[in-house]
Amino acid sequence: MRAVAVGRFDGVHVGHQALLAAGRRFAQARGLRLMTFTFPPDRPALLPLAAREKLLRALADEVYVCPWEDVRHLDAEAFLRDVVVDQLDGVGLIVGHDHRFGAGRGGDLALVRRLSGPLGLEVVPVPPVHHGGSPVSARRIRALVQRGAVADAAVLLGRPVMLFGDPVRGAGLAHRLGYPTVNLALWPGTVAPAPGVYAAHAYRCPQGRQALFYIGDRPTFPGLGASAEVHFLDAPPAGSGSVEVHLWSRLRPDRAFPSSEALVEQMGQDRREAEALLTARMPETPVLLG
User: Fold this and answer.
1) How many C-beta atoms surround the C-beta of residue 174 within 10 A?
2) pLDDT per residue over 81-102, tens digit each?
3) How many whole angstroms from its chain centre is CA 280?
4) pTM here?
5) Nearest by Cα to 91 from 67, 68, 123
6) How many helices (DSSP H) and strands (DSSP E) are in the chain?
7) What is the pLDDT of residues 62-71, one digit of tens each?
8) Which of 122, 61, 65, 54 is CA-nearest to residue 90?
């Protein structure tokens, strides 16, 4: 028998963490396993599915990723009866106060409470986590990331904003400027931060290194096109696999400089600012490279 928490859990933010902590307490008190029942991303997400699963597995006994096509036709009552109770052997349902489910999002907490008795479900409603006077939500965090406000987003996530990418061949420009970088093809389907330069920790192995992360159109050099790249502040770690980037703060927006010399001068300032910010901050454990 299980306690089941249903949702997309995009970002696995502090609100999700509070909900699953309540679910864990409920499940342990009744000798149940706690399952998170989730779905693949259907829009640009805060995390790739593999990272979301890894974080959820640290908070629950089981994680089940259900293809949306398998349940999208079910109304709320059928979803509770056929999936939660019959398929998953659920006897407890952990729900946020505003959670909607079922075809047309017709199910809510009131419906769950009305059906819980006949279905043999014990309902655990969990209030939202507020920050700055508003509930923490994935939508709110996505908007912050898209504005470049990654420091504010990190507070709501309970950890830094994360990006993942695979190394690709670059134009060699950064090396010629004295700031060699690893150019990245960012994994698709995740929310991209606003163009600019960020203080970050970057990982090619479990150990994080201080880094500058750049994303933008390289306006000082028209014609080169868009780029995402990491400059390690000390010797880059060995390896050629994927890179995990943890963004802590946006240092400045992207902009054109009058000359490459002016850009190099600014990059030196970026480096000093990042070093000052990151020296006081310990790297987090990487999610997928740990």
Assistant:
1) 20
2) 999 999 999 999 999 888 877 7
3) 23
4) 0.93
5) 123
6) 8, 13
7) 999 999 889 8
8) 122
Reply yes or no on whether the pLDDT at 103 is more than 80. no
Tokens of 152: 């504010």
Structure tokens at 48: 């790739």
Q: Which DSSP category does 70 fall into?
A: G
Alpha helices for 94-231 (secondary structure H): 109-119, 138-147, 150-157, 173-177
Mean pLDDT of the region 251-273: 96
> Helix, strand or coil for residue 80?
helix
d(CA 140, CA 221): 34
Distance CA 211, CA 247 (A): 9
Contact 167, 182 (CB under 8 A): yes
The token pair that represents 215 in the structure block: 């994303």
Q: Six-digit token pair at 272?
A: 């000093």
43 confidence band (pLDDT: 50, 70, 90)? confident
**Within 13 Å and on the Cβ side, how many CA atoms surround 185?**
6
Residue with tokens 């406000």: 149
| Domains within the chain, CATH numbers bracketed | 2-129 (3.40.50.620), 137-279 (2.40.30.30)
Could you give the angle at the alpha carbon of 196 between the alpha carbons of 193 and 198, nearest 5°? 80
Q: How far apart are CA 146 and CA 194, in angstroms?
A: 5
Whole-number Å distance between alpha carbons of 93 and 6: 8
* Distance separating alpha carbons of residues 209 and 289, to the nearest angstrom: 13
Distances (CA, A) of 12 to 61, 105, 162, 204, 260: 15, 21, 12, 23, 41
Angle at 218 between CA 212 and CA 223, to 5 degrees: 150
